[in-house]
Design a protein that fits this description.
With about 350 residues, chain A is of the alpha/beta class. Helices cover about 45% and strands about 15% of the residues of chain A. The first copy, chain A, has a six-stranded parallel sheet, with helices on both faces. Chain A starts with a helix and ends in a 12-residue tail after the last strand. The first copy, chain A, binds a DNA duplex (30 and 30 nucleotides) through helix 2 and helix 4.
Amino acid sequence: MPTSKDVARLAGVSQSTVSYVMSGRRPISEETRKRVEDAMAQLAFQPNAGARALASRRSQVIGLAIPFVPDLHMGSIMEFISVIAATARQSDYDILLITDDEGPEGLERVVGQQLVDGLIIMQVAGDDARVPVIRKLPVPSVLIGVPEKRAGLECIDADFELAGTMCVEELARLGHENVILVDWQDTVVTRHVNYVKRFHRGVDKAAAAAGVKVIRTPGRVTIAGMEKAITKALKENTGIPAFIAPEGANQDLLVEALTNLGLVLGKDVSVVVNCPDRLAERQRIPLTTIWMEPDEVSRRAVRMIVRDLTDPQSRPHEDLELIKPVLKRRKSTIRPRSQR
Amino acid sequence: MPTSKDVARLAGVSQSTVSYVMSGRRPISEETRKRVEDAMAQLAFQPNAGARALASRRSQVIGLAIPFVPDLHMGSIMEFISVIAATARQSDYDILLITDDEGPEGLERVVGQQLVDGLIIMQVAGDDARVPVIRKLPVPSVLIGVPEKRAGLECIDADFELAGTMCVEELARLGHENVILVDWQDTVVTRHVNYVKRFHRGVDKAAAAAGVKVIRTPGRVTIAGMEKAITKALKENTGIPAFIAPEGANQDLLVEALTNLGLVLGKDVSVVVNCPDRLAERQRIPLTTIWMEPDEVSRRAVRMIVRDLTDPQSRPHEDLELIKPVLKRRKSTIRPRSQR
DNA sequence: GCGCATCGTCGATGCGCATCGACAAATCGA
DNA sequence: TCGATTTGTCGATGCGCATCGACGATGCGC
């Protein structure tokens, strides 16, 4: 493997000049720059990451703590990871994975070894065990999710509370007097992932304000379970029912179950689900969606950590960014009065 | 951050001794070892990864090339990644992500920078553009998947051909005379991912051997689509139909569609799907499964690359490991004669 | 025409660790 | 009993790069 010394020799300059060509931290004449760059190209030179990290004390690597989640919607996590990795590359950072298997010590390890310059922590729970660890670490971190005690931390997430509010307001605006909330699975709700709580708060607030009644039914993993849950909820309901399904995994099941029960979306029933446009549009009846913009959350997380790393001055003492969800009206919602 | 020099000073030994305590490459007296280890613990010493990489010329990092897949079953990819990362840690390796966005050059970059000691390449297609690049790289790689030209490469994958054979043989053994293969989506089939081809080959071979007729219908993304496809396939079918659904994403849809059509699994129809035990068992009617053991594939991939790295002598010129799928008989398959 | 700042380059140094050669002390075999 | 190992430790060196101080060469104002 060629080194910067080899490049220097070929270009007829000193090694330090090569280094300054790369970093641009000192003025270099146009002519010298060209000679060096040609030499680099000719040798296919790539700077050694270890040496660079050692000398500069920065690894250009960001650690990404990924969740362990057998029952959570895995596909969406994959999406986060892809977008984070791709976005990081645009700022010349690589992504190193940290699994939950290692526990919070994994974070201490990668930071202690100076393998990473900063951390992005996914799926942060309200009482996340990683939070106290992160606080003590000498590198910046960005949390995706909002822990209960977030003093001194930088957090980003979708605005679940606003999402809840938007769903209810939209349905209330259409004239619905009840909404049936098809909730996350119980296992998720009880795991202190507080975005569920935040969504509920948004729903409840808006419902109170609009005088709408909320019926809640837990999410199910099978169609049969979903049908049963829906049937039960429908008994409490009066008028044309309106459903909200904030969890991605519930979306298919809900639509399918309603169809099985003979209810036509946008005619006999209103439905708002959380799913990407692509999916919503290819349904038999295009779905009205509340979309949490996970890609945007991912990009912003990267942007935050990169800012912290490139310009430590600008690092806020703490920060909470909530991404506004997008409500897209399609064909699965209806104005109930017009049907009576 | 404490360095090995600090540890040495505290323990009253030389820095090199500290290094030898860590690596075990020279004998160290029990007493000295203890003093050094105590000093390490006291200072919470962690060796600097950059310095270590520079001096030892190994980064203890494995690059993982992840696929870009909007329509492929994302959840399963996530599973691969988790298991790979966790397994790698057990051998003291970390995982660095390489996305498809960077193209094959991404591989050259991480290797050129000596960021990684080796590569694991996921979702290798028959004519994968990454394969010629990998061939030229000076580090070992393990491919998950089987490219067409695999001379000189180490590959691992589930044995899709055997899986196809096992499904058909099982159904033939039960007495079915036709099988309906609910295939991958067209977009996947045409993308040269040759595991589809291998599965088909296994199915066809076994079908020919057992005198079974194969009816093929492409996978669909909606229940309605699936119902239509099934209805069509059923017209060609005689006797009690038998379905095989090798793609995970089809599994729910198929079961649901059959149910909607009034067919009871394991009574009116036999079904073999590819899905994890956990999922198969919590269905209304537990499903007979052909499971491709993705976790085992992941673990083996890591084991292979780790072996290559720790003992370069033993690195095979080329290798192809195929993991045997597991067929588990549950309640969704039936002996057709007994029903007549 | 002279001092002074800026430009452009070089050499030297050190980042923190692994590794090699050296060497004293302990152990062994004959 | 003495050479030949083996054991246990140290000092020196270098991995490849970033960075600092130094310094000659220009350009500037006056």
